[in-house]
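Deliverable D2.4 — example input (structure tokens):
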């Protein structure tokens, strides 16, 4: 590890990118403690401790990095941006005009990104209004109401503060992606989860001291976390490699012998996107419920769509499977890969070049994506069920572990890629194995 740090220090661009990402994450963490004007932070903290430690509020607080408990200007988190991205990506598949725009290259993608930003602002206004209405209904017997002065003045100020906070987080994520290292949006969620781990550990030990969690149960939970982490590392690194052969080529008087290569297909090509997207979708009913607090049917639906309930787990798994296939189809174009192989003189043994090769790649990718979707569903749901049974803090759920480990591995791969490009060894050193899972170009 010391050699890796020394190698990073020798690459000025990589060092500056890592420092820039760390600085942006520090700015984000500072903003988490900036409270929305007109809200009593102590009342909100007391409410979250008594009623919002788990369930849907706990999930929202998890993805916002504790900003909801602090009722920060970042309380909406990055979820409006993620929801807007889902909508635009669905439109890319459904609406031909958006699909053509996406295929226009960098200019088309910039246009779609701009629409995503506009959608983020609109969703932030809607969710911010729902949150403002909900805050006015919170009341603590010991401390009183959460809102000091209710009314439209507070609502407008609250919505503007929350929308500005979400837009600022979106800007931070884009800056990290462009000028830092790793995916900015994923790193922001990663930073929020990691920042809450110390308090979650402290809460766990307090439960052990009070006798609410037995020592054997604590040991079992620790082993479960280790096993789940190992499973995540295994599947995130797993590949299905397709053999590619290249025919002999004659250039002038020189005959270049054909060579063998491999087309690596990741078992989980979608990464941590499916559980993040699925969680974002499942938070939407709660937003509607805040607008209609007297609607008992909607309230019951929100309660059943809370983490730990059978309906929530079922819908969560179905959404993970859907987004695993959907995001893989959006990011991986088998037709383009098959065309590139054909142009380069490569072919899959026993498969005709062109459309047949594309169909074969699609077939293989569909099978391994199903395995990846099942793995993500199991990791996200099974530990959460055990967590509910043993009354463990929300941060030790499978979803949070999957995001933390997945984002850490992806960021490490990007750092390693920078080091290898500049002739330094990767994280494994000179003789150790390098991190697997990158999709190498054929």
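Example output (designed residues):
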């Amino acid at each position: 590890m010391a050699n890796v740090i020394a190698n990073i220090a020798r690459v000025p661009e990589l060092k500056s990118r890592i420092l820039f990402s760390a600085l942006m994450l520090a700015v984000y963490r500072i903003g988490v403690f900036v409270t929305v004007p007109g809200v009593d932070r102590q009342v909100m903290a007391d409410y979250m401790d008594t009623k919002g430690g788990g369930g849907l509020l706990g999930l929202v607080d998890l993805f916002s990095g504790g900003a909801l408990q602090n009722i920060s200007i970042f309380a909406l988190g990055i979820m409006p941006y993620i929801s807007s991205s889902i909508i635009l990506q669905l439109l890319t598949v459904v609406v031909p005009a958006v699909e053509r725009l996406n295929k226009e290259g960098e200019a088309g993608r910039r246009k779609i990104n701009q629409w995503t930003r506009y959608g983020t602002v609109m969703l932030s206004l809607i969710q911010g209004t729902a949150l403002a209405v909900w805050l006015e209904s919170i009341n603590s017997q010991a401390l009183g109401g959460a809102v000091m002065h209710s009314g439209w003045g507070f609502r407008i100020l609250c919505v503007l503060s929350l929308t500005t906070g979400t837009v600022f987080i979106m800007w931070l994520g884009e800056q990290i992606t462009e000028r830092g290292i790793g995916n900015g949006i994923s790193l922001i969620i990663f930073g929020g989860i990691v920042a809450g781990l110390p308090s979650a550990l402290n809460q766990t030990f307090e439960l052990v001291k009070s006798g609410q969690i037995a020592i054997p149960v604590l040991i079992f939970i620790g082993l479960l976390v280790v096993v789940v982490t190992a499973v995540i590392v295994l599947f995130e690194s797993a590949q299905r490699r397709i053999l590619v052969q290249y025919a002999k080529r004659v250039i002038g008087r020189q005959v270049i012998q054909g060579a063998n290569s491999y087309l690596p297909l990741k078992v989980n090509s979608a990464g941590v996107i499916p559980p993040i997207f699925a969680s974002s979708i499942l938070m939407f009913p709660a937003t509607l419920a805040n607008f209609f607090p007297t609607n008992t049917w909607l309230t019951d639906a929100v309660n059943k769509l809370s983490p730990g309930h059978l309906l929530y787990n079922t819908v969560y798994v179905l959404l993970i499977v859907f987004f695993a296939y959907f995001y893989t189809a959006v990011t991986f174009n088998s037709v383009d890969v098959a065309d590139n192989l054909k142009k380069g003189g490569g072919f899959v043994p026993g498969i005709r070049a062109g459309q047949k090769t594309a169909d074969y790649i699609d077939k293989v990718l569909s099978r391994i994506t199903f395995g990846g979707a099942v793995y993500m569903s199991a990791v996200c749901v099974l530990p959460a069920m055990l967590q509910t049974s043993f009354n463990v803090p929300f941060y030790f759920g499978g979803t949070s572990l999957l995001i933390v480990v997945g984002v850490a591995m992806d960021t490490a791969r990007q750092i390693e890629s920078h080091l290898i490009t500049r002739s330094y060894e990767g994280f494994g050193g000179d003789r150790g194995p390098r991190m697997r899972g990158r999709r190498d170009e054929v």
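The chain has a mean pLDDT of 81.
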